[in-house]
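Lab notebook, bench 4. The sequencing result for the construct came back, and we need a structural model before the next group meeting so we can plan mutations. Quick request posted to the team channel:

Model the 3D structure of this chain.
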Amino acid sequence: MLDYTNYIMRFRTCKIASPDVLCAVLLSVCAAAAASGQATLNASPITIKTIAEVETKATLSGREIVKLAPAVRVVPGDQVIYTLEVRNTAAAAVAAPTITYPIPDHAQYLADSAVGPGADVSFSVDGRSFDAPKNLKVPDAAGNLRPALAADYTHIRWQLKHRLKANSVAFVRFRALVK
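Done. Here's the predicted structure in token form:
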């Protein structure tokens, strides 16, 4: 069983036990932010909180229900649901923000799972250019271009169609398979 607690902890609100651990977590978050090309240390009014969860099944009054639980320990083959809480912390609205998020290295995007009410979703296979899935190409073993598969995606981008009001939140989501 693989333990992704440290990976997920970077993105969740948590209590840090020591200054050394805090420094390590901050460095990790800064590295992830720099890699994504989206988060910066400037005064951007948009903050993104990532919540990683897995589906669990329980029986309640004789009926099976599906609940979401924190993805603390996952194994290859598990599906993780990533919810991004996009918050405008400013006192003014932000016009149609764009949210770009890297697919975690230990995971593979699941086709057709990226959603965001009032958002256009596009994908990247290189982290720089984004397009609809039907337009993405990657080189095959011989160097010829072939249509990209969901497993080839490296980043997801949500372009909100409407402004994000002051002090409000939007949610976007996708599923990934643990490698």
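Residues 2-178 form a domain with the Immunoglobulin-like fold (CATH 2.60.40).
Will bring this to the meeting.
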